[in-house]
Structure of Class I SAM-dependent methyltransferase:
Amino acid sequence: MMFLLSKLKDVDFWERQLRERLAEPIHLNLISLFVYFFGSFRAKVAFDLVERRRYAFALLKAADYAKAQGIGKIYALEFGVAAGAGLVNLAWLARHVTKDTGVEIGIVGFDTGTGMPRPVDYRDYPEEFIEGDFPLPDREALQRNLPPGVRVIYGPVGETARGFVESLDAPVGFVSLDLAYYSSTVDAMQALLGPAEKYLPMTLVYLGAVLIDNANPAVGELLAVREFNELHRFRQVHPFNCLRDKRIFKNAMWHNHIYTLHVLDHPKRAGVEKLKRDVWVLEQPYTAAES
């Protein structure tokens, strides 16, 4: 209840609703009312009716990918826990996604625990952030709000991300990079360079700071992604293909945050594992019409 009341008092929340929802066709908004009260979790995700929609979409999509490949468990990693609201919400979403898909989801957060480090240079937005921004006030309180099994690894991300994926017992399906800084994002992206089988062939990625006004390809996360792609031929981070066109509601800003890590050296994408299915055959309606 307190969370709902805080949302109702949030000016940015109402501005977002006016900009995103009321600009959509009225019949879709009317259908949304029915889905809100009577729809399934999957339907609510489709209609953008779940809190933290970008996480809901990415986590459900990752679980669907895993299920289609016969994978029963995946991991979701969040770099940049801050006060912990996103991680708590991610854990809540994971329970619902598991209930819907049957795919188990392990969740791990990464954070310094003391807020953002000092900006290294212009690439880290020194005009925007200062050392200590977004600290985690109470580690014990956060842990009490997290389900058993959800953990947070504290320390410099350059140290905690290195080699971490190799220790997991299932592939990574979703990675949230919400660090803003170029330097921190480069460090966190070490978690995208593990053995190919430690990821889904297409692993969902969230970039948290690509929409701030001063974001551009020469700084921050966008620069980190560009350099990552240039250095790693078989690991490519790219905006989720045609996401806006695939959604019911087209105006949501969160679409711009969703990327995909394409693991091109994955056995399923490198031609190592042969697909087991019948040959696709297209019908020729014109031939049938002539006869």
